[in-house]
Amino acid sequence: MIKKITMPDFIFAKSRVHKLIEQSYNIAYADAAKIAKERLDKSEDFRGGNLKELQPITRQVRRLRGRAGSRPLVDTGSLKNSIKLVKEKGRMGLTFNKYGIYHAKGYKTSNSFWATNKKTNLIKLKKNTQVPEREWINPDNVAEGLTTPKKLFKAGKSFVRLYKSTLRSKGLKEYKFR
After folding, report:
1. Residue 93 domain boundaries
2. pLDDT per residue over 78-111, tens digit each?
3. pLDDT higher for 166 or 51?
């Protein structure tokens, strides 16, 4: 007597897992650029704390350039406007101006640090000024802090649902035994 049994085809399911992970990741990080921009507006680091305040030298440079703002990383708006969510070849990531990572890690100014002013042209300020790290993103793991627990939960539920539906639709295989 031949018995038939239907079991999940885990080989097929395994081939689909990367696509399911990608879909779940898209759900979890769909608002990453928005969150990063809001963080700059609020002067928050990736942990939710406050960014380090501007140093007196930076305030002086801003005054010389005719800008009065005192929020860190928000002078011209260039960094904030450069933040974009990019999806390419099944991968998703955050792009922004290169200097954004320098600010996240901290850096020293070059030997020739100048501020420009329309009236006085070039003014030499200070050599080798240490710019403190302002971790608006985590330089070691950019994705950290760019989603919410609610979004992660939703992504996890979506992954489980999609995996189960994969097994139900084409992921079942019949085996015959004697």
Report:
1. 49-142
2. 999 999 988 777 667 788 999 899 889 988 877 6
3. 51
Same domain, 128 and 101: yes
Tell the residue number behind the tokens 């189960």, with chain if given: 164
Structure tokens belonging to residue 158: 């979506």
Is 42 within the bounds of a domain? no
**Residue 106 belongs to some domain of the structure:** yes
